[in-house]
Amino acid sequence: MTMSRFFATLPRWLVLLLWTAIVMLPLYVLVVSCLKTTQEIYADPLGLPARFTLDNFVSAWERANLGRNLVNSFIVTAGAVIITLVVSAMAAYPLSRFQLGWGTSMLALFLAGIMLPIRLASVELFTLMRALGLLDSLFGLMLVYASIRIPFAVFIFANFMRVLPRELEEAARIDGAGELRILFSIIVPIVAPAVAIVAIFTTIAVWNDFFFPLILIFDNDLKTVPLAITNFVGQFRTDWGMVFASLAISLAPVTAMYLVLARQIREGAGIQGAVK
Amino acid sequence: MSRHALALAFVLPALALYGLFVLYPLLTSLWGSLFQWRGLRQMGFIGLGNFVRLFEFPNSDRMFGALGHNVLWFVGIMVLQNGIGLFFAYLLFWSRKGAAFFQSVFFFPAMLSPVIVGALWRLLLAPNGAVEWGLNTLGLHEGRLTVLGDSQWALWMLIAIDAWNWMGLPVLIFTAGLRQISYEVFEAARLDGAGYGRMLFTIALPLLVPSISSVTTLSFINTFNQFDIVYVMQGVQGNPNYSTDTLVTWFYRLAFGAEGSVGITDIGLALALGTLLFLLLSVGSVLMLRGFDRLSVRP
């Protein structure tokens, strides 16, 4: 068998399907385990549940206070995405489209942030947040996430805005439109793909993070989903059905987003990976 | 309003947030590493004293242990995640049919919080868990599976799980990179009788240098920031017996007081470690990007 036939046919598909199985099997176990009792999970990890029941979800929901945590995560994520989008689009606009002597160095200052390991500054961040009265505050968490995501967002916006023709805003300027108006009603709609990339990747990063809630949030009622889950998993490790159910609840929102936006996420990840 | 003032007004909100919550804490951390600390209070200036302590007993053991784990982690990710990822991308490049489907499936785990990934795999790998059941059923293993409690195996299991988690990313970046190479180059090589293996090494790899550069730098930064999976699966001490400890888990213990049984913080040491890591990451990634830049050929 020659190399070209090897690549051309069956083995190639087998390799790809094998990895598909390695990705899907753990997720399958997670999903079926949500519907089983702990005894069933031990006896037959891969089998379907004997009887369909949502008991695990009910007890996970009741004992883990997940509803509250989901609301917190939604608030923080939505807030961080909106702040990141607005301030980054505003910053990228003059930096990419005005002739400014200092534009390039300012852009470089922002871009440096893509590589800065902010976690290593978490002691001073903690002290700062305490001084500002932003510990144990969803608003504070929102600001931290937005600030961390700004460099990437400015980079993406600047790249998309740079290539637009200059006539776009010139006509509007002659008609007397203000710069904010030009930015948000002319430029931003044209760079909608950039808005989508920034929004999607900010959402994923913020929704999934647990490091910053770990150091900045202590009140149980203010914990986000990932932080609540870490505590919950440790606490109820003997009740596997319930733990799996709580994991399933917390991954449902991103899974739904992925199913709807798979294409944008695939392409956006390519762009993000290329710049990060 | 002049154009400069207008531009500044537009930049200001982003700059204020970024300056306050990213640049300011980072700069004060670097500066603070030169001081002595009592709890969260900054005392006198001691120059490089904290850095010296990092390299002295008993801290040096933790330091070199964690550093070694991070280096192994980087090597492991380069082979298991990026090497195999490149192989998958090359397969997908030659079979455009279904490529989008496989890319989406492979990338899916990257959507999940490390908390979910860690908890899921801890449950799967636990004694009595699904993996033990599977291996025993297939006859590949007998008795209790205790890889996560075994200091020989634990680190490698975490690396493999991390690779499972992020495999989709190199696949996406490398397929995107391969598609930018003009198809005729491969056609010409094929007419000259080059096989798929030969084409990978003589055409694809040299032209993929920009993609390899970003994947490698990204993996470098992520590996040396490794915290979440360890925290969720093995606890903040990097159990068992510090065998999965990383520089950031150690940093976390020093900074937030989980070092030792009584929970002592050592801010000075934490800031020195943070500064060292910051230098390692920034110098390392700049050197990497430079080096790859020199290697890259223009098609």
UniProtKB/TrEMBL annotation, chain A:
Family: Belongs to the binding-protein-dependent transport system permease family.
Alphabetical list of InterPro entries matching this protein: MetI-like (IPR000515), MetI-like_sf (IPR035906)
Main location as per UniProt: membrane
CDD domains in the cross-refs: TM_PBP2 (cd06261)
Location(s), subcellular: Cell membrane
tRNA processing is among the record's keywords: no
PROSITE patterns per UniProt: ABC_TM1, PROKAR_LIPOPROTEIN
Keywords for the protein's UniProt record, in alphabetical order: Cell membrane, Membrane, Transmembrane, Transmembrane helix, Transport
Organism: Kaistia geumhonensis
Topology versus the membrane: Multi-pass membrane protein
Transmembrane segments: 70-93, 100-118, 138-161, 182-207, 240-261
Residue ranges constituting the ABC transmembrane type-1 domain according to the UniProt record: 70-261
Name this protein carries in UniProt: Raffinose/stachyose/melibiose transport system permease protein
UniProtKB/TrEMBL annotation, chain B:
Annotated InterPro entries: MetI-like, MetI-like_sf, UgpAE/MalFG_permease
Annotated PROSITE patterns: ABC_TM1
Family (UniProt): Belongs to the binding-protein-dependent transport system permease family.
Superkingdom of the source species: Bacteria
Keyword presence, Ribonucleoprotein: no
Membrane protein topology class: Multi-pass membrane protein
Record's subcellular location: Cell membrane
Stretches assigned to the ABC transmembrane type-1 domain: 67-288
The protein's name in its UniProt record: Raffinose/stachyose/melibiose transport system permease protein
Transmembrane segments: 7-27, 71-93, 105-124, 153-178, 199-221, 267-289
Organism: Kaistia geumhonensis
Main location: membrane
Keyword entries, A-Z: Cell membrane, Membrane, Transmembrane, Transmembrane helix, Transport
